[in-house]
Write a structure and sequence with these properties.
- With 437 residues, this protein is mostly helical.
- It has a 3-stranded antiparallel sheet with strand order 3-6-7. The protein has a two-stranded antiparallel ribbon with strand order 1-2.
- The radius of gyration is 20 Å and the shape is globular.
- The protein starts with 6 loop residues before the first helix and ends in a 27-residue tail after the last helix.
- The protein binds protoporphyrin IX containing FE and 2-acetamido-2-deoxy-beta-D-glucopyranose (NAG) (3 copies).
- One 2-acetamido-2-deoxy-beta-D-glucopyranose binds next to loops.
Length: 437
């Protein structure tokens, strides 16, 4: 999200951010974190090193077909020596994100599954060529909601167990496993819905994976392109509506994160070769990243902790920026309108109610304007910032402080957003959804 020197927009955005008073307990719980200076300095450093406006300009040109995708042998990812595959031991953790799991399995993240700000941003940018803006936003949000903003650590799976947080924080932060509706969402590309699986949001549900797999059934021609993944998005939303009485699709974790995570499969897992610089994702590579083994569809099984970079695998040449995240989420919503509707089931299957975006945002946006310009990103961010809809148990102080911090820092990595002011959320609209808690 960024402001190419558009000072007036930046100022209005910062004003908008500072006007949000989403945390009534903020002042009381503020004692949880005294000093975010390490967080701040590290984030500043990362922002300084990357020419984010240039990356965004190039991403826009690429989406307009004005820029070619290149290839170089240096895109080969090292899977030898210290980066050889080693599955986790029982005291190491893995979680719902195959991209993070594979980095830990190859020692690009600490193999424990608990990583830190610098290590994780470096690994995401260098190993997967995630844009520095995207990596920083994802990691900083992780640290803010489920990590330790003093030690700058966070867990890709189970909770950290201990933290450097000061007295006043009621419970140590969980990992990504514990971030349901704040980060992790229902209607994931292969993981199960929280309600249907008693909170197990990290295991691959084989039937859901098999659906994706079978979209390209011929092993010799299978190619999981963006358009194929879009069909899986249609399936995952409809499946949750049809099967989960408590399905909930939140503004940030659902519409933005879970949809973007679908798109990540087509972009990041594909093998980028000289012949196919834009990427080619076949069955073997798909299975390797999802920790799935077996040859025929009937033999497929999920083997936890075995996400693996294939040998001779080449990462993308193009950094995946926040411009790509937003553009591609909007492309999905264009083809699958139900992926653009925030809301949920009301306690029965097939009872989906979409909340009126106008009512939800106090008139700042409506169903149509949501999909125009940068509004979707503005909306997702404003929602993320409020911790909406659920504030995570004992970690609320963390959330309040760290998200306020993010407001002030991340403004400078956002694409050129002229965000409408969204500061009047009507959260009572979510009361009708049992899955929103
Ligand atoms: C710091 C960086 C990242 C964070 C914090 C993160 C976090 C998450 C979270 C919270 C989910 C759960 C979303 C849901 O419930 O549907 C998720 C899912 C996913 N992520 Fe990541 N992710 C990161 C980077 C990546 C990267 C680099 C990739 C690809 C290389 C990736 C691929 C995926 C995929 C494919 C899923 C869907 C998993 C499934 O449903 O099977 N993520 N990630
Ligand atoms: C799979 O694709 C190949 C190459 O196009 C083709 O020769 C083969 O008949 C296809 N197999 C099936 C089962 O459709
Ligand atoms: C990736 O593409 C290159 C070039 O075609 C090929 O040599 C390599 O085996 C492929 N890797 C995978 C994992 O398919
Ligand atoms: C918020 O939504 C509820 C439920 O639809 C409605 O009764 C209430 O009037 C709304 N509040 C505001 C301030 O618009």
């Amino acid at each position: 999200m960024v402001f190419f020197g558009l000072v007036p927009i930046l100022l209005s955005f910062l004003l908008l951010l500072s006007s949000v008073n989403a945390f009534p307990h903020y002042a009381i719980e503020r004692r949880g974190i005294q000093d975010l200076s390490a967080f701040e300095n590290t984030v500043n450093d990362i922002i300084k090193r990357a020419d984010i406006p240039k990356l965004h300009k190039e991403a826009r040109e690429r989406h307009l077909g004005k820029r070619q995708v290149s290839w170089s042998p240096s895109q080969l990812v090292d899977v030898t020596g210290e980066h050889r595959f080693i599955p986790p031991t029982p005291d190491q953790t893995r979680g719902p994100c195959p991209g993070l799991n594979v980095l830990a399995n190859h020692g690009y993240f600490d193999r424990s599954g608990v990583t830190n700000l610098v290590e994780s941003v470096n690994a995401l940018t260098s190993v997967f060529n995630m844009g520095p803006d995207t990596a920083l936003a994802l990691v900083a949000y992780s640290i803010a909601i489920i990590g330790d903003p003093v030690a700058l650590t966070w867990s890709i799976g189970r909770g950290l167990g201990k933290s450097t947080l000061l007295p006043g924080v009621l419970s140590p932060p969980g990992g990504i496993d514990q971030s349901h509706n704040a980060y992790e969402s229902d209607a994931s590309i292969t993981r199960g819905d929280s309600y249907l699986h008693n909170g197990d949001v990290w295991s691959v549900q084989l039937d859901t994976f098999k659906h994706l797999y079978a979209l390209q059934p011929n092993a010799s021609t299978a190619d999981y392109t963006f358009d194929v993944i879009v069909e899986q998005r249609r399936y995952t939303i409809d499946k949750s509506i049809n099967e989960n009485p408590n399905f909930f699709y939140a503004p940030f974790s659902g519409l933005v994160v879970a949809t973007a995570a679908h798109n990540f499969v087509g972009n990041f897992f594909a093998n980028h070769s000289a012949e196919r610089p834009e990427g080619y994702l076949d069955q073997a590579t798909l299975k390797s990243f999802f920790s799935i083994q077996g040859d025929t569809i009937d033999e497929l099984k999920w083997v936890p902790g075995n996400e693996r970079f294939p040998d001779n695998w080449y990462k993308p040449s193009v950094p995946y920026t926040l411009v790509d995240v937003v553009t591609n989420v909007l492309k999905v919503v264009e083809k699958v309108p139900q992926a653009g509707k925030v809301g949920g089931n009301t306690g029965k299957v097939n009872s989906f109610v979409g909340v009126d975006i106008g009512d939800l945002t106090g008139g700042a946006l409506n169903a149509q304007s949501l999909l125009e310009g940068n509004n979707l990103l503005c909306f997702g961010l404003a929602a993320a910032r409020t911790g909406l809809p659920s504030v995570l148990g004992g970690a609320t102080s963390l959330l309040g402080n760290a998200l306020n911090f993010l407001d002030s820092k991340l403004g400078s990595i956002l694409p050129d957003l002229a965000c409408p002011r969204i500061d009047k959320w009507n959260l009572s609209l979510f009361n009708q959804f049992p899955g929103s808690g």
